[in-house]
Amino acid sequence: MSLPIVAVIGRPNVGKSTLVNRIAGGQSAIVFDQPGITRDRNYRPAFWRDREFLVVDTGGLIFDDDTEFLPQIRQQAMTAMGESQAVILVVDGQTGPTAGDAEIAQWLRQQPLPLLLAVNKCESVTQGLTQAAQFWELGLGEPYPVSAGHGSGVGDLLDALVPHLPSVVGGSAPEPIHVAIIGRPNVGKSSLLNALVGAERAIVSPISGTTRDSVDTLVERDGQSYWLIDTAGIRRKKYVDYGPEFFSINRAFKAIRRADVVLLVVDVTEGVTDQDLKLADRIIQDGRACVLVVNKWDAVTKDSHTLPQVERQLRSRLYFLDWADCIFISAKTGQRVDKILALVQAAAESHRRRVTTAVINEVLADATAWQSPPANRQGRQGRIYYGTQVQSQPPTIALFVNDPKLFKDNYRRYLDHQFREHLGFRGTPVHLLWRGKTERQAQRQAN
């Protein structure tokens, strides 16, 4: 299913991200009173009346300045326009028409796309009409007074948008897999996103902090859709000041929570750092499936022994992530990038898998026959009555036993390994819930 795209463009700080959040519902794009916060194209699914579409947020347009990231931001906005069915130009009703608005309007009149003019920050209905009337001089048709912050006028704007959008007939396509790309700054996350998409989807720069917002991209491979979420590089908390980077990192953590699978990107030239370990622990805490992506493999001098040696070193540091597949890639050259989505799909299937109680208890019977549960010093032996899966995403198995304290970490790891080996839970954490006899009896009484 290919959804029509609507591009939201305008000068810096006119409220584009706030309007995108309002149209799409919920808070996703970073909103902060500072120019240049949004740099890449950020796609969000939206729905109005009988139309589904993607609304794409873009960076603030400035045509007469080529400093820092402004040329790349202009290119990102132009690319968004090139794939869109309609455009919403956002202007500031409190500031009134500016030379920058006029320059953008002149450029838009040359584009063969339906255009809607949204005059933002019109909080008062009566004053809003007066504020919007000033923008007739841009020659772009009727200006719609809206307040993206309060929501007033946005419905009228979307009613005017609907006739320009084709209706989309839904099919039986599989549910999209949400994939978050996370890692420390400058490990190559945005380069990886561009390599997966096959286009300059995100701005790539050696300057730390280039990506500030979480950048969503929908791609399709072999009939499966993937929401790819590029995130800001996550630094140690003590180095982060309150402001854009603070919000960026919070967005990255939220991206992990809304993902099915997380691509943890590690720079092979630097190895696994303490910050990588903390990110891996965050993935496990949030119960997300994971693929370990080792980037910049092209920068390593190699022989036939290099790959297994390096993988052993990485695995020894990330031993608690031993269930995740590991792939060595170069986002710069494209080496092995085409194999990542197959690993993502396998991990997502494991993450969503449900196993019947009968199968789980067959595995338990074989596991306990091969290695009996331990006994304490007083000779009291652990007993497992039965197990059942109580949840997926991640797979969660409740084990009903006589006393959870009798089962130490070694035996718990043994059962975790047995479930993975026999049930195929590759690429996802598996949570084991140990329920004692008294808990089991209380549960029966409650039922």
Describe the structure.
This protein is of the alpha/beta class and 447 residues long. The protein has 3 domains: 5-164, Rossmann fold, CATH 3.40.50; 177-352, Rossmann fold; 357-446, GMP Synthetase, Chain A, domain 3 (2-Layer Sandwich). 33% of the residues lie in helices and 21% in strands. It is built from 13 helices and 15 strands. The chain has helices at 16-24, 70-82, 99-108, 125-133, 154-161, 189-197, 244-257, 274-285, 306-317, 340-352, 357-370, 409-423, 437-446, and strands at 5-10, 42-48, 51-57, 86-92, 115-120, 143-145, 177-182, 215-221, 224-230, 261-267, 289-295, 325-328, 384-391, 396-401, 431-435. The strands form 3 sheets. Strands 2-3-1-4-5-6 form a 6-stranded mixed beta sheet, sandwiched between helices. The protein has a 6-stranded mixed beta sheet with strand order 8-9-7-10-11-12, sandwiched between helices. Strand 2 (42-48) and strand 3 (51-57) form a beta hairpin. Helix 11 packs across helix 12 (409-423). The two termini are 44 Å apart.
**Low-confidence parts:** 27-39, 201-213, 239-247
- CATH level 3 topology of the largest domain: Rossmann fold
Average pLDDT rating = 83
Strand content: 15-25%
Oligomer: single chain
Please give the largest β-sheet.
6 strands, mixed
Shape by Cα distribution: elongated
The CATH H-level superfamily of the largest domain is: P-loop containing nucleotide triphosphate hydrolases
- Helix content class: 25-40%
Count of runs of 4 or more consecutive helical residues? 13
CATH architecture of the largest domain: 3-Layer(aba) Sandwich
Based on secondary structure, the structural category is: alpha/beta
Any idea of the CATH class of the largest domain? Alpha Beta
Rg computed from alpha carbons, rounded to a whole number of angstroms: 26 Å
Number of strands: 15
Q: How far apart are the termini?
A: 44 Å
Order of helices and strands: EHEEHEHEHEHEHEEHEHEHEHHEEHEH
As laid out across the biggest beta sheet, the strand order is 2-3-1-4-5-6
Number of domains: 3
